[in-house]
Amino acid sequence: FSDFPFEVLQHIAAYLDAFSLNNFSLVSKRLRDVSCSLLKSRGMVDFKWEKCGTDGWRVRSKSWYFSNGFTPIRKWAFSDEEAHMSNHLRECSYFDRNVKTMPTAVCFGVGNSRGPKTLLHLAL
């Protein structure tokens, strides 16, 4: 693989699943660079949050990676490190859930930038 052009390696790597891409990136520095070029389109991102002041949160860092799992995801959960944000949301006065139980009517305009817009009303 060391003599293949970067673009050819990218093309080959594009056919790999996430688990194989993860292993592909561990072979050499060159293949890691190839894998990194596919992160935005094929990888996953994990946000690390931190409290900002008394009533806000901000992203401290982002960690990009390829999945290394074969099985489907059965449960989504916060890690121990992120549990403090989940606990905060339970008590935060700004976290006001608005769950609709009945269908809602939606209105929006349709048209191009030159002509007049037509108002559509969708009753769900």
Automatic annotation (TrEMBL):
This is Putative a receptor for ubiquitination targets. The lineage of its organism: Eukaryota, Metazoa, Ecdysozoa, Arthropoda, Chelicerata. GO terms for molecular function: ubiquitin protein ligase activity. SUPFAM superfamilies: F-box domain. InterPro entries: F-box-like_dom_sf, F-box_dom, Fbxo30/Fbxo40. Residues 1-52 form the F-box domain. Transmembrane segments: none annotated. Keywords: Receptor. The keyword Transmembrane does not apply. The keyword Chloroplast does not apply.
